Structures are given as structure tokens and as C-alpha cells.
Amino acid sequence: MQEKKVEAQNILSMNSVEVLYDNVMLAIKGVSVQVPTGGMIALLGSNGAGKSTTLKAISGLLKAERGRISRGEITFQGADITEALAQKRVEMGICHVIEGRRVFEHLTPDENLTAAAPHGMSRSTLNAEKDKIYGYFPRLAERKNSQAGYLSGGEQQMLAIGRALVTQPKLLMLDEPSLGLAPFLVEEIFGILQKINKDEGLSVLLVEQNALAALEIVSQGYLIENGRVVMHGTAEALKSNSDIQEFYLGGGETDFHNVKHYSRRKRWLS
Amino acid sequence: MDWVFLSELAINGALTGLLYSLFAIGLVLIYKASSVPNLAQGGLTMVGAYVVLALARDVGLPLWLAIPLAAVVMFGLGFGIERVALRRLAGRPVVMILMLTLGLDIFLRGTTLAIWGGTSRSMELGVSYDPLFLGDIFISRIHLVGAGVALVLFVAFMLFFRTRTGIKLRAIADDYMASWSVGISVERGVGFSWALASVVAVAAGVIWGEIQGVDQALSLLLLKGLTVAVLGGLDSILGAVIAGIILGVVENVGADFLDPLVGGGSRELIVAAVLILTVMIRPHGLFGRHDIERV
């Protein structure tokens, strides 16, 4: 009974998922992540910890990199999507803003948005979606007919998010949206994400190395290391955790002694 | 200097050039949607011509029916090629896909040889051979018809790439991964571009088949078509049209000057020089997209 209720509250549930690349390299080793409906969750961790792989497992983009889920299952709104095609998952409402922005450089921002329109979306709905996105990101509206490749980094990130919103997602996943952006831009973009989350009830799964900024806007976070979840808690708990402070928030002392101390206390959660 | 003769050379060169463009548009379509130069476009053009002949002569259909029907068959073939061969290679290095298209070209040539043999078959479109005079200038009617077809296709595809489907195809050419991430079916998009290019191949195959007969030599059009596409910028349809005209004029006029000096055969030299110089001096061609590097 209790379990059923939890299931209904989570838009996405990922249970002990293992991912292999090229059938040999184990990229994540049994990761479990739950995203509550309408919630904002962060996956934190250092480079190569398995955060991006986790997102790709959820969006189905693993296949493009010759990866596959070898164990575990992923359910979205109660439906098993472990084997579904990436395109199908976008139709169901999962959209993945991949790392490095990756806008369609030779298209205009307006065409970038058009390109993401779901099959069968009417022209008027598409225009309404575009207007809404230009409302969130007024800078894009100003430059909507220039070439997307010449936008600034911040504008490209906004465009990448806008492009994902055109697919009318229920769960938006972002991979390192703050990468290479000035702090004030990160703040602006995260503020808009928060607003969209509130206004539209869009669930958000955010992957970040910039733990400080991420923990400001999410309610819960997972810490991933070496392909495993090593910590899970509310944003407040994580912010006040001394290990997190030391290694991800850049406070405290970081000498060799502490590193050893930290790894001894680390525990596997799943 | 004989100006009438020179303008006759130039005008007929431009018309022939537009026929190269007709071929090159097929190359551009595929490049624009998948960033792959299709070395099998010559083979497709040849097969397009053979299919028209098979329907018109062997089945006995009238030409006005055989040509659209061949276009439908070739549309299916284009889709089939993606489904059977290219899909496995999505995301692999372009050079592997390039080799695949080369293999495909050889395969198509071999197939037509096996089915229809190597003797040239004639394609009779019923376009009169009577000379057409524009003032004192002689113009070939079939070239004029072909140039018209090229221009119609040019306008049609310019408009197509502004539609939603066209924009999605351009998005795929830009970034496969990003396309997948927003739910664009890259596989279907690439298949569609091959299907369209195969339809263009029918048009090019019919016109060129009428001019030089239908045999395996039709696939060698690839060399001139590729030169035009590269000069135009590989992903620009406008570029293919303008580059076609340029190459046609330069080839026709240039050969008239050079042939007496070298004793003939300078056409091929001119085409080769244009291709090599383009790649060396202006690798993006006249209208090609540049890879964007922001500072």
C-alpha cells in the first residue's frame, strides 16, 4: 500500500540500473534515482562519475553511443521504458538537454525551435509554444533570425532549453547547463528553470558539477561517484554535510588526510 | 573574335551546366540532410533511367506514366538503402559511410549490367531534334527542357527546406545526437533525403539518358556532378545551380580555346582543375556553410 503511493508520486523511477558501453565497460553500477512529479532533483558528482550516463540511460540516447542497459529498469509514469526508443521517450514526455548545448548551429534560433516540434503539432500550437519560450527567454526573441552558431554561450544554453520545451516535456533533464557560463548567467538560467518548474509543474532532473548553484534550486540531490549513488538527501541536508562542503562546495580544508578520511566514511546506497 | 559563336558556346555551356546541376541537386539533398557525400548518386541516376526504360519498353507503359512510376519505385529504393545499409552506420565516421556509398555505386552498376547488359539503350522522349534558333544562336531543345526541369526542382527544394520537414532534415545534418535528443527520427530523415535524391536521379537519368543513351556510362556523371556540388558548396542548392552554370560555361568556352592547343580532350582537364582548385582554395565552395567557430 505504502509502496504504491510512492510509485504514484514519482514521475520517474530508476531501479538498480547498470550500463555497459561496447558490451564491456561498466559505466554505472546499479544506480537508483527517483524524481517526484513536479519536483526538482539534482545529480551531483565529479567528472566521469556516471551522471551523464545516467541521463542517457533515461532518455535512450545511450544507443547512439553504443551503450545499453544491462540490468535494472526504468519506469516513467508507471510505464516501463527500459527498452523504448529515444524518439518514443520524447513523445512520452522525457526531454534531455544534452551536454555542451549542441544547438543546430546553421539554423536560426527560430528554426531550432521548429525542428523540435513534435510530429503533428499544429502551426498555431507551435507558435504559441514559441511565444511562451520567447517570453521565458526574451534574448532569444531578439536574435531569433540570426544564425544560432553565433549566439553567445548563455544564449545557446537558453536556446537548447527552449528547444527541449517545444517537445512539451513532463520531465526535463539537463546535463551541465552551467558549463562555461558566467555566474550571473547561471543564476539567470537557473531562475528561469525554477520559474518553469513552478508555473507549469514541469519535473526537472539536473546534472551539475556546480553543486553550489544546483543545491540552491533543487529540493533533493543524489551524489554519484564511480558509477554509484553514494549519498542522497534533501538539498539542506546535503548543503550542511561536511563531506559535500569540503569536496563539492569548495569550503573547508582539503588535505590528503581528509581525503582518506572521506573515502572511509563513504557508503554505498544502492 | 566571333561574338555570335562565343555566345552560342556560352549559352549552350550554361544549359549543359544546368543539367549538371540537375544531377548535383541529388547530391546536395543527401548532404544537406546527413552530411554525407553520396558517391552512389551516379549509380542511382543510371538505375533511374533503366527503371524508366523497363517500364516504358519492357512493360509497355507510355512515358508520361512510366516516369512518375519510376519516381515512386526509386523513392522506395532510396528509403530501402537507408533501412538496409545506412542505418547500421549511423553515428560512425563519415569515411565509412563514404566507402559504403562507393560500394553501393559499384553494386548498382553491376546489377544493371547483369539485368540489362552493357549495350546502350536509347531513351526517346519525343523532344524534337530540330534546331532551335535564338537569333543566330543554335540551341538544343533537349538541353533546354532539362535546364527547365533543373530550375523547377531548384525552386521546389528551396521551398521545401523552409518547411518543417525541411528544417528537421537540416537539423539532422547539423547534429545527429541533438536531433535524437528532441525526438527527431534521424533514421527516417536520412531515409527521406535518400528517397528524394533517388527521385531527382530519375529526372537526371531521363534527361541524360536521352542525350547520351542509357548504359553504365551514365553513372560517370558523378564526376561532373560532384565537381558542381563541391564548387557550389555541397549543402547549397542555390550553389549547385550557379556552380553548374559556371562549370558548363567555363568548360564549353575553355575547351574551345584549349582544344586546338592540346589537341582535344581539354574538357576533362578543365573539370578536374575546377574540382581541385575549389578544394584547395575554397573548400566550402561558393555558398557552402562554414563550420562556425566562435571566439
TrEMBL record, chain A:
Stated name of the protein: ABC transporter ATP-binding protein
GO biological process, one term: L-amino acid transport
UniProt family annotation: Belongs to the ABC transporter superfamily.
Keywords: Amino-acid transport, ATP-binding, Nucleotide-binding, Transport
Organism of provenance: Pseudooceanicola lipolyticus
SMART domains to which the protein is assigned, alphabetical: AAA
Cleavable signal peptide: none
One GO MF term: ATP binding
Domain of life assignment: Bacteria
InterPro entries for the chain: AAA+_ATPase, ABC_transporter-like_ATP-bd, ABC_transporter-like_CS, BCAA_Transport_ATP-bd_LivF, P-loop_NTPase
ABC transporter domain segment(s): 6-251
Source taxonomy: Bacteria, Pseudomonadati, Pseudomonadota, Alphaproteobacteria, Rhodobacterales
Automatic annotation (TrEMBL), chain B:
Gene Ontology process terms (BP): amino acid transport
GO CC entries: plasma membrane
Key word Cell membrane present: yes
Membrane topology (UniProt): Multi-pass membrane protein
Pfam families per the UniProt record, alphabetical: BPD_transp_2 (PF02653)
Subcellular location: Cell membrane
Entry keyword set: Amino-acid transport, Cell membrane, Membrane, Transmembrane, Transmembrane helix, Transport
UniProt keyword annotation of Cell membrane present: yes
Database matches in CDD domains: TM_PBP1_LivH_like
Listed GO MF terms: transmembrane transporter activity
Entry's transmembrane regions: 12-31, 62-81, 93-117, 137-161, 226-249
Family to which the UniProt record says this protein belongs: Belongs to the binding-protein-dependent transport system permease family. LivHM subfamily.
Official protein name in the record: Branched-chain amino acid ABC transporter permease
